[in-house]
Amino acid sequence: METREIFQANRKSTRRLTEISQRLSQQELSQTLSNGWPVYVTLAHLAVWDQRVIHVLNLAKESNTLVVPSFDLQLNDILTPILHTIPPEDAVKLSINIAHSLDQMLEECSLEILTEMIKVNARLVNRSLHRNNHIDSIEASIKK
User: Fold this and answer.
1) Helix H or strand E encompassing 79
2) Per-residue pLDDT, 116
3) What is the pLDDT at residue 70?
4) 3-142 to CATH, choices 1.20.120.450, 3.30.1360.70, 3.40.50.150, 3.90.1300.10
5) How many Cα neighbours within 13 Å face the side chain of 32?
6) I need a surface site. Which of 12, 27, 60, 99 has the fewest CB within 10 A?
7) So where are the chain's domains?
8) CA separation for the pair 97, 90 (Å, rounded)
9) Cα–Cα distances in angstroms (integers) from residue 81 to residues 37, 58, 87, in the given order
10) How far apart are CA 102 and CA 143, in angstroms?
11) Do residues 75 and 52 touch, judged by C-beta distance below 8 A?
């Protein structure tokens, strides 16, 4: 997939995220998904992972080289209890705002850094893969 297509997919997933988040009721935000997390925790989770990529991009800008911290496997377990303390409305705002910020940063990033990031993990650049997975779960849950 070319970077242009990835950027389009990212923007589309951010639009989906925005649209579904803005129409969720308080009850739907608290509804538990199949992964055991309430919708709002899932939205906060997306914000954390998008923020992680922003962190990687900022490190790359500072050092002119790709630096990817290796804490991926533990991050969900570490943060899940914290994410449960975020008010649902704040989780919505975080997920939308950070997704928009990240989309813009990725689109402004050099092709060299993007290529290196894709080599490490395509999901660092193609955020739509992660976002859409969770958005699909949210949509399936609220349709029940």
Assistant:
1) helix 72-83
2) 92
3) 73
4) 1.20.120.450
5) 5
6) 27
7) 3-142
8) 10
9) 10, 26, 13
10) 29
11) yes
What is the DSSP code (8-state) at residue 39? H
Helix axes 111-120, 39-63, angle to 10 degrees: 130
Closest CA to 81 of 18, 144, 22, 36: 36
Cα–Cα distance for residue pair 19/67, rounded to 1 Å: 33
Tokens matching residue 112: 């060299």
Over its length of 144 residues, how does the chain's per-residue pLDDT go in tens digits?
A: 799 999 999 999 999 999 999 999 999 999 999 989 999 999 999 999 999 899 889 888 888 888 787 776 678 777 888 999 999 999 999 999 999 999 999 999 999 999 999 999 999 999 999 999 999 999 999 886
- Token pair for residue 53? 């990529």
> Tokens at residue 98, please?
């950070």
Contact 46, 17 (CB under 8 A): yes
CB 135 within 8 A of CB 16: yes
Are the CB atoms for 102 and 58 separated by under 8 Å? no
